[in-house]
Automatic annotation (TrEMBL):
The keyword Coiled coil applies. Keywords: Coiled coil, Metal-binding, Zinc, Zinc-finger. The lineage of its organism: Eukaryota, Metazoa, Spiralia, Lophotrochozoa, Mollusca. Residues 4-50, 56-96 form the B box-type domain. This is B box-type domain-containing protein. Residues 173-226 form a coiled coil. The keyword Coiled coil applies.
Length: 256
């Protein structure tokens, strides 16, 4: 186990040990680090290099007083080399750093997917709302034009139909805005978790990083994605007729 107090290389026991091998849990001087990385079995080991590195900060298995070096995928927990033999012998496990990288990538993927879905739904709401408002304006214009041609005697009917459209429009717009606001709120929550995720980039302790990533993933999973409602539509079936057929001329309003 690395001795943080001595700060000397644990290989040659002479040079300053400011290079910490995460796999071997030992301090190396610059020369021994180079030799370590040239060795076939240890060439892929990773080092933390800092004059003030303190490997004792790492969290240990409380039961066996050993470093967490593996991650049991079946139990979703970090384990030490003794835990592997005593409690997780038949389980699937991998190096804790490898597992953390996998969960890190998974959390990023979940965040990205969640944000893409929310942004896509908001875009659908905005696009549908604009088209719907255009349809409403077109229907109102058509009704006014028919009313104008049918003289003053049908103004009351014209205004009645317009009011019907506006009332329905108000209700539909409120529904769309409500869903849109909820989606935006969900997006804000996703952005907040994205910020928390970005903040994890500075965490060196893999166990703490694992715990933080699992918390972020849990919060992301709780963000509800409301389905985009069917975008309402409105049409006006215009007809031509004599003055005696006023009621029929106005056609029928339909809402989707």
């Amino acid at each position: 186990m690395a001795q943080a107090a001595s700060k000397t290389c644990e290989i040659c026991v002479s040079g300053p040990g400011h290079n910490y091998c995460e796999q071997c849990d030992q301090l190396f001087c610059d020369g021994c680090k180079i030799s370590h990385l040239r060795t076939k079995m240890t060439k892929n080991h990773t080092f933390l290099s800092d004059p003030n590195i303190n490997p004792e900060v790492k969290q240990y298995c409380k039961e066996h007083d050993e470093n967490f070096i593996y991650y049991c995928t079946e139990c979703s927990t970090p384990i030490c080399k003794i835990c592997v033999i005593k409690k997780h012998k038949s389980h699937d496990f991998a190096e804790i750093k490898e597992s953390t990288e996998g969960i890190k990538a998974e959390v990023k993927m979940v965040i990205d997917m969640k944000m893409r879905n929310l942004q896509s739904n908001i875009a659908d709401i905005d696009q549908g709302s604009n088209q719907y408002k255009t349809d409403v304006n077109g229907v109102i214009h058509a009704i006014r034009e028919v009313g104008r041609k049918l003289k003053e005697m049908i103004d009351e009917k014209v205004e009645g139909l317009i009011n019907t459209v506006k009332k329905k429009d108000t209700k539909n717009v409120q529904t769309l805005e409500s869903v849109g606001n909820e989606l935006k709120t969900a997006l804000d929550k996703a952005k907040e978790q994205q910020k928390f995720y970005q903040d994890t980039q500075g965490i060196k302790d893999t166990t703490k990083l694992l715990q933080k990533l699992k918390q972020i993933k849990s919060q992301i999973d709780q963000i509800e994605e409301m389905q985009v409602p069917i975008i309402p539509s409105v049409k006006y079936a215009q007809q031509k007729a004599t003055e005696r057929e006023i009621e029929k001329l106005f056609g029928e309003l339909t809402f989707g």
